[in-house]
Amino acid sequence: MTIWLVTIGEILPIDSKEKKQRTALLADTLWKKGHNILWWTSALNHFKKEWLFKKDTMFEISEGYKIFALKGSGYKKNISLSRFIDHRIIAWKFKKFASRIPKPDIIVVSMPPHDLAYEAAVFAKKNDIPVLVDIRDPWPDIFLNHIPKIFHVLARVILYKDFQMIKKTMQMADGLIAVTNTFLQWGLKYAGRNKSPNDKVYYLGYKKPMINDFLNVEQKFSLILEKLRHKFIVFFVGSISASYHNPFILLKVAQKVSKNKNIHFVIAGDGELFNELQISSRNLENISLTGWLNEDEIEFWLNQAKIGVCPATKDVNLPTNKAYTYLSAGLPIISAFQGDLKEIIEKYQIGFYYPPNDVDALVKCILNLYQNPELYIRMSENAKKIFSEMFDADKIYREYAKHVEKVAKQLKDTYV
Q1: Is 31 helix (H, G, I), strand (E, B) or coil?
Q2: Radius of gyration of the chain (CA)
Q3: CA 241, CA 263: separation in Å to the nearest integer?
C-alpha cells in the first residue's frame, strides 16, 4: 500500500542521533512491513525554529520512503500569530500539491494543526480515500487557555471558522486515533458519535535506543559529571520555552533544598528562554544545564538520574513525552499534569502529582523519594513494569501499524 502521513512539528529522521517521535516511529514500522510512505511535513525545525530547507523539498529517506517538506512563513514562538499563519500556508500548499501526486490507499493526519488536518480530510473524502485523524492536542480549544475567561465567548466568535473546521474534520474521519483517552472522547464529541472499532488510543510512548558505549557523551559532559558523583539527580528534559511546561519552577525548588548538598538538578533542552534560564540559574550551585541533547545523550542522563520532573505552569490535561521517557529508565515521575497522566501516576504508584506552581509541594515530593529508599525502589520498579506493559514504543507502533492496515483494507471496497 501507499500511505500518506501528514504531520508537522516533529523531528525529521535525517539525523541518526536525534530521537524519533510518533510519526517517524509509525513510518518506520509501516515501511518495514513493505508499504510505501510519503510523509508530508514542514520545512521548519519546530524545536530550533530554524529552516531545514529554503523551499518546498521532496527527498528520499530510503527506497519507498519519502518526505515532502513544505515551506511556510516560519515563526520564532510557539504561541504566536506567526505560527498560526505558517500553518495556514502549509495547509494551503498541501491542498495545492496533493492533487498532483498519485493517490494513496490511506491517509493518517495528525491534529494539530487543525487547518492542515482539515485539508487532508477534505482531500481524502473528495478522492474516496480512507483517513485516520491522530489527535495530539485539542486545537483550537486549547487556544482559550491562553486568554482570560472573560474573553472566551468573544474568542469563540472570532475563531468560529476554526471550531467549525475541527468539527468537520472529526466528522469526515473514518477513525480517530488519540494519545490519551481524554482526547479520544474530545474528538468523538466533535464528531457527534459513539466510539467505533476504528477509534483507538495509542500512547505516545518512547523507544529505548540500543547504546552500549557512552564514552563520547561522558567526555562531552566531563566538567558537569565531576561535581555530580553520587548525587541524587532530579532531571528535566524538554523545551525551554514560554509554554505551560517550562522548568523555571526548578530554580525555586533548588533554592529551597540547597542545604542538602546531595540533591542536584539537571535541566536538559534548548529554546527561546534558554538564555534567561542560564542567567537566572548561574548563582545556583545545585543546578546544571546541558543544552540540547541528542538521543544518546538523553539516554545517558536518564541513566544518571533518580527522578524525572514534568512541571506545568497551570492546570493542563495534556500528554507529555517526558513522562514516557522517564519511565523507560525506571524513574519515578513527579508531575503537575492532570488528566490521564495524573490518573496513571496515582493508579500504578509510579510517582507523585503536585499542583502547578506549588514549589513547596514539589519540594515535599522530591524529599519524600530521597528520604525513603524503600518507597523509591518500589516506585522505580513500578515505573519499569508500567513502561514495558503500556508505553514501550515498539509495541505501541506495531499495533498502530496493524490498525492502519486493517482500516485501509476494510474500507477499500467501501470507497470503490
Answers
A1: helix
A2: 22
A3: 25
**In the β-sheet with 351-353, what is the strand arrangement from edge to edge?**
287-291, 263-268, 232-237, 307-310, 333-335, 351-353
Decide which of 412 and 390 is more confident: 390
Strand 36-42, strand 65-70: pairing: parallel
User: How far is the C-alpha of 91 from the C-alpha of 75, rounded, in Å?
Assistant: 15
Give the CB-side neighbour count of residue 398, counting CA atoms within 13 A. Answer: 7
Question: Which residue has cell 528535566?
Answer: 236
How many Å is the maximal CA-CA distance in the chain? 71
Read off the pLDDT of residues 347-359 as tens digits, 9 standing for 90 and up: 999 999 999 999 9
Percentage of the chain with pLDDT > 70?
Answer: 97
Would you say how long the chain is, in residues?
416
In the chain, the domains with their CATH numbers are: 2-205+392-415 (3.40.50.2000), 215-391 (3.40.50.2000)
Query: Do residues 398 and 29 lie in contact, with contact meaning Cβ atoms separated by under 8 Å?
Result: yes
Is 0.90 topped by the overall pTM?
no
Q: What is the pLDDT of residues 233-269, one digit of tens each?
A: 999 998 887 776 778 899 999 999 988 989 999 999 9
